[in-house]
Amino acid sequence: MTQLASTPSTLRPEGYPRLCELIKDIDFTMFTTVAEDGSLHSRPMATMQLDADRAELWFFTSIDSPKVAEIYHERTVGLSYASPGKNNYVSVSGRAYIVRDTDKVTELWTPAAKIWFPQGVNDPHLVLLRVVIESAQFWDSPSSMVVQLWGL
Amino acid sequence: MTQLASTPSTLRPEGYPRLCELIKDIDFTMFTTVAEDGSLHSRPMATMQLDADRAELWFFTSIDSPKVAEIYHERTVGLSYASPGKNNYVSVSGRAYIVRDTDKVTELWTPAAKIWFPQGVNDPHLVLLRVVIESAQFWDSPSSMVVQLWGL
Ligand SMILES: Cc1cc2nc3c(=O)[nH]c(=O)nc-3n(C[C@H](O)[C@H](O)[C@H](O)COP(=O)(O)O)c2cc1C
Questions:
Q1: ipTM of the complex
Q2: Strands A28-34, B40-46: parallel, antiparallel or unpaired by DSSP?
Q3: Which domains are present in chain B?
Q4: Which of B1, B40, B116 to mutate to test binding with chain A, by most A CBs within 10 Å of its CB?
Q5: Which residues of B touch A132 (CB under 8 A)?
Q6: Is the predicted pLDDT of residue B120 greater than 90, yes or no?
Q7: How far apart are CA B40 and CA A78, in angstroms?
Q8: What are φ and ψ of residue A119, in 5° steps?
């Protein structure tokens, strides 16, 4: 049987280091939220941190952005990481929370973030998005079985 | 203003040729469905056709695959196309339909599909997924405004 009919082939809570390894070279995820009418919308987002101990991913965003309103309405989010060159594809399911925490912003700040927040860490619009990972899968070749990294 | 706080900058029903151009070089999309518990799941999928006249995308899949059950339960899907090398990112929102149509399968068949359907066009598990595009946006550089390609 091919992987098409497969359910995830392995349950690996210990898959966490592999998740880190896979996504550390993929700068941008497509971050999917559920709009109020139920439709799914994605946009590229720079991953600021993958916190292995807490199974969390952190992002910067603007409090005014439509995705923040969508997340207040519905926390369920999906993140996909694609590295077509290496044939690596990762799917993360989770819940997103809007967090205001200047210390955390300072910890995660990089000069590259100035493209979006020219005022830097004290930009009044800058908020954190914390995504608690509920499950993750990856594929590393077209004929591979999907591998469950995390979750049920 | 940066794109983080932006709403789509342009309404372009005429954005269709650009959508074709952007996704024709991206072999695989991350195809997101809504599971019965509301969580979002993505998996890589090969785009078999973008039908410009009908605003439809076509895929092959197996009738037994969990995504088919998810789509029967909830048609709303999100597709993301990422080309990190070229810095192109596309989000498509739509509705998915399961279609059995051997003529259409034959029309879209490519030998590459044998990886998933070794029995070829007559594989009894092979069904078509038709995605009717409701809206699409793209980003072509980190600092760009999002561009609305299609839809409201
Ligand atoms: C690069 C790549 C391309 C794939 N293309 C397809 C495809 O076109 N159709 C398909 O059903 N599965 C494809 N798969 C497998 C799916 O990603 C997935 O594992 C399978 O369809 C089962 O998905 P489901 O359990 O979510 O239903 C592809 C996998 C990879 C790695």
A1: 0.89
A2: unpaired
A3: 3-150 (2.30.110.10)
A4: B40
A5: none
A6: yes
A7: 5
A8: -80, -5
A90 in contact with ligand 1, CB cutoff 6 A = no
- Per residue in B60-116, pLDDT (tens digit) is 999 999 999 999 999 999 999 999 888 889 999 999 999 999 999 999 999 888 888
- Please name the member of A4, A42, A93 whose beta carbon is closest to the beta carbon of B116: A4
B131, B87 contact by CB (below 8 A):
no
Predicted confidence (pLDDT) at residue B126 exceeds the cutoff of 70 = yes
CB contact under 8 A, A32 and B135: no
The per-residue pLDDT for B2 is 26
Q: In angstroms, what CA-CA distances link A12 with A144, B6, B62, B146?
A: 16, 39, 25, 37
pLDDT at position A141 is 67
Under a CB-based contact definition with an 8 Å cutoff, are residues B108 and B58 in contact? yes
Residue that is written with structure tokens 């269709």 in the block: B16
Find residues 75-134 of chain B whose CB sits inside 8 Å of chain A. Answer: 76-78, 80, 82-85, 89, 91, 93, 115-118, 125, 134
